[in-house]
Design brief:
This protein is an alpha/beta fold and about 150 residues long. About 40% of the residues lie in helices and about 10% in strands. Bound molecules: 2-acetamido-2-deoxy-beta-D-glucopyranose (NAG).
């Protein structure tokens, strides 16, 4: 397959995710983080940022070396997240670090730290409560009866 060709059709995050799942299994020695960054850079112009989801410090370093703007550290426990973010920032202070996965409003403080730039909460959309409301239209001259007054 041609990842650069594919990258014309896909946003960088999708591309990185594809590179992750395909390449990690088939080519374990491949620097897929750098490949994802290069492919994304070919597909987008300079105004867009490239973020790579990484599952280790080594992958994060590969992504940063290849010019990623952001590194996403997803599903890390806080005690793993902060040392990795610190080590990455020591080498690449300009690369932003995003923490994600398992973050809720009650434990978000565990993900805050001096080396974390962005924290994303999937629960904002995935666990958002539904608001039950409706809009009724009445004919001109009709007297609306509130729902609670109907028999
Ligand atoms: C944060 O809270 C959620 C929901 O209770 C939980 O699934 C997750 O494991 C917690 N994360 C940490 C790091 O405590």
């Amino acid at each position: 397959f041609s990842l650069p060709a594919l990258s014309l059709l896909l946003p960088p995050t999708t591309l990185a995710a594809l590179a992750d799942s395909w390449l990690r299994e088939d080519c374990p020695g491949l620097n897929f983080a750098a490949l994802a960054v290069r492919s994304a850079r070919q597909a987008v112009d300079f105004t867009l940022k490239v973020e790579v989801e990484c599952s280790s410090l080594q992958e994060a370093v590969h992504a940063a070396e290849a010019g990623a703007d952001l590194v996403l550290l997803d599903n890390f426990k806080p005690e793993e997240l902060h040392p990795i973010a610190q080590a990455l920032k020591a080498q690449f202070p300009r690369v932003a670090v995003e923490a994600s996965g398992g973050v809720t409003l009650s434990n978000i403080s565990q993900f805050c730290g001096p080396h974390i730039d962005v924290i994303s909460l999937g629960m904002l959309t995935q666990a958002a409560p539904a608001l039950d409301f409706s809009l009724k239209l009445f004919a001109e001259g009709a007297t609306p009866v509130p729902h609670s007054c109907r028999s």
